Amino acid sequence: MSGETAKGSKGYVKTTIFFTTFDENIAKDIINKIAKEFKVLESKRSHVLKEVYYIAVEGDARSVEDLLRGKVNWYKVDVLEFK
Question: How far apart are CA 3 and CA 23, in angstroms?
Fold first, then answer.
């Protein structure tokens, strides 16, 4: 894997992002901005609570907190690093 770290192997970093917003346009804008900066592994909208969104990206995406702050009702950013 020339320079790439395999999923689940030592050194691999994945970030999961959860956020809530009632404005679908804001959610789409946020998801598009995240996708431009990071490789999106998965992106979903809750079927039960339509205002809850989930995105998983490759790499350390703590910087998205700045993008989310003040635009959504609630968010959580979890960085998982395999050591």
Answer: 39
- Residue range 73-81: average pLDDT? 96
Strand boundaries in the chain, DSSP class E: 13-20, 40-45, 52-58, 74-81
DSSP secondary structure string for all residues of 25-71: HHHHHHHHHHHHHS-EEEEEE-SSSTTEEEEEEES--TTHHHHHTTT
| pTM metric for this prediction | 0.84
Q: Render pLDDT for 4-16 as a digit per residue (tens, 0 to 9).
A: 566 667 889 999 9
Strand-pairing partners, residue 44, are 54
